[in-house]
Design goal:
Radius of gyration: 33 Å
CATH topology of the largest domain: Conserved hypothetical protein from pyrococcus furiosus pfu- 392566-001, ParB domain
Number of helices: 15
Distance between the termini: 69 Å
CATH architecture of the largest domain: Alpha-Beta Complex
Helix content: 55-70%
Number of domains: 3
Strand content: 5-15%
Mean pLDDT: 76
CATH class of the largest domain: Alpha Beta
Shape: elongated
Low-confidence stretches: none
Amino acid sequence: MNTEITADAALVNMRAQDIESAIAMFGVPSARLELIPMSEVDEKASLANQARFEPIDWDQVRTYKHMLLAGAKFPPIIVWRKPNGRYVIVDGNHRFQTYKLTGDDPIVGYVIDGIDMLQFQDMAAAMNAYNGRRLSHEESKRHAVNLSCRGLTRKQIVTATGLTATEVKRAIGEAEARRRCQSIRGVDKLPERVLAPLNGISSDVVLLKAAAVVSACGPTAREVDVMVPEINRQRSEADQIAAVEAWGADLNAVRQERRQPRTPAKPVVKELRRHATGMLNFDPAVVALQANGDSDAVKDLLYRAADHMLSIAEQL
């Protein structure tokens, strides 16, 4: 489909070829460069439909303001005209906020018609590759999850987000596991590399048990990767739960063992005392005591030093 792009007569000189090429790439029916009253822009909807965690970087807005006051010219924003006639920003939220600060009203923008909300959201995320600050890796993963919820295939999501197929798979798995484990306290703090493999457990009951063990015992990603197939090999749900409980008991045992202070073996104690004696033989205080023939004081000093080193070793 060819996109018809036109402009009001007074705005012909403000057309931006790179933006028009980006608009045409999405196959929208038509776009027109117009003057847009700021009061008719649905600011709340414009920010809510962005893929970023923080839609506005106010440091960037202040930088744009200084640039604008110094005479810089910004490209037109892109807006979508909703059926009710209100405008929602597709690309240009930072420029819009800058114009609010400088009092520029109306503003110049490309108005897109003939698309629905889903197309608008896709376009809003993708336009970050052409203007403004691109999505972070975490924001791209969240966008991938949103696209998956709307029925796009993983291949389509890879193309839309720029993530690898593995990253898309893990992002979707993590989101699904978090959804299934919402009742587990602390599940929101579990890292993706640990939580995502849990989504391979088909039974919600078993998954909740496993997530609770992971949250309480803190196994490594490798331990989770190894254990999930072992859980799935059990034939019944009861056997799977038993396997999870046994896994949790093993993790707890290892955890308790790590907390116990380790007492050095006897050869280690002897070596520490020998080492302490060797060090103290060069100590000026020990040399003075030896010169005075005070052997008891020297022996006491040596044993105190050895005991101190032993207490340090027990904390390692």
